[in-house]
Amino acid sequence: MDAVVDSKSQAQHTIPEPRARVGLIVPSVNRMSEPQFNHFAPAGLAIHVARARITGQWRKPAVEMREEISRSAAALADSGPDLIVYHCTDSSMREGCAGERTLTGIVQEATNIATVATSALVIEAMRALGMKSVVLLSPYQSNDVIIRYLQENGIAVCNDVALKLDGHAFAGVTPQQWLALAREHDRADADGIFLSCTNTTQIEAIEDIELALGKPVVNSNQAVLWGCLKRLSAKLGALPPMTRLGRLMNC
Predict the structure, then answer these.
(1) Which domains can be identified in the chain, with CATH numbers?
(2) Is there a contact between 226 and 121 (Cβ–Cβ < 8 Å)?
(3) Strands 45-52 and 20-27, how do they pair?
(4) Which of 164, 161, 146 is nearest to 220 (CA)?
(5) Are 22 and 47 in contact (CB under 8 A)?
(6) Could you report the per-residue pLDDT of 112-161, keeping only the tens digit for each?
(7) CB 37 within 8 A of CB 225
């Protein structure tokens, strides 16, 4: 009898096999993407993460980071992801669309797995929402890199705020503070709000900002999760509503 009970108990606590897997290459200092993706990802989607020294004191031109990125990508590939994301907004936008292609090319060469960058998924998300002009909010020292990339892709920046924070201070800005910043700096000529960065609490503010301003919001982590779900929809099947992540999840 005990053996039967133990067998039933183990069966009830077995973790289901994922229907699809996503691999993220994140900056080594990133503390927020992993818990946020695991929290918001729907059942059936497994999230695997590898770290690379690609920002801050380790920032270099894309071609000079080849060895570091290739190492992280190859290790991540061992987990068997269906899709890999080079997941850093700043570094994937820093050298424009050409630099973005270099980065994803390095990953694909090392893994032979379909790869996309955060930068590309942000633009896809904005286009899906019909956003041609945005208010840009970030924790960065400067938004110049982001503005240039958005402009290259036909997105105008009506107003921008860079909080000029360093490293782990990014995560110290609360969702309520991001909401307050959006309220304060919104512009009538902006189609929506772009919350740029993968290492913040911004994703938790999306729903409240959209309710407050009546405009769509795109955030780096939200856009990447959305893009992954779209690409893996055949494996994942029908998914429950994800209202906390804003209008984008209905596109």
Answers:
(1) 12-120+223-250 (3.40.50.12500), 129-219 (3.40.50.12500)
(2) yes
(3) parallel
(4) 146
(5) yes
(6) 999 999 999 999 999 999 999 999 999 999 999 999 999 999 999 999 99
(7) yes
